[in-house]
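Incident log, structure service

09:12 report received: a user says their structure output differs between two submissions of the same chain.
09:20 pulled the input from the user's history:
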Amino acid sequence: MGDYASVPLLSVGMGQARVIEIHDPESIKPEELRPHQIQRGERVLFKTRNSLRCWQTDDFVEDFVYFSQEAARYLAAQQVQLVGIDYLSVGGFTKDGVETHHALLEADIWLIEGLNLTNIAPGIYELICLPLKIEDADGAPARAILRPVESTAK
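09:34 re-ran on a clean worker, output below:
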């Protein structure tokens, strides 16, 4: 059936996740992250103007909102376990591409790219993200599902 040595890692893609809305039209920066008090071990998905803007066209949008390398280092220092963004790359097209990827991946942070968060409000959700197992790959297509966390308060 295959090697299941990496099965515990799948738990990174399953569990409580927080969706945070970012208002900066250029990039995600530490200044906008700090007020959210992101904690160690969190799964954080970032909704930007990309959701309403970039998914409305089949053309590649070069000026999408991305993680600045400073924000990537901030999230690495916070020791989050997963970050997701609502376009095709965590790093920018013309700036901070390689540096952002390195900062996050060297901190063993899972990256989910290509999320469409158009109809998702900021808040707490249950995330289920299961990548295809591809031998010797450092990335894979995945199906990501968000389910609202039901409140037990009456």
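09:41 both user submissions now match this output. Likely a transient worker issue. Closing.
09:42 reviewer note: The longest strand covers residues 123-131. The chain has a mean pLDDT of 91.
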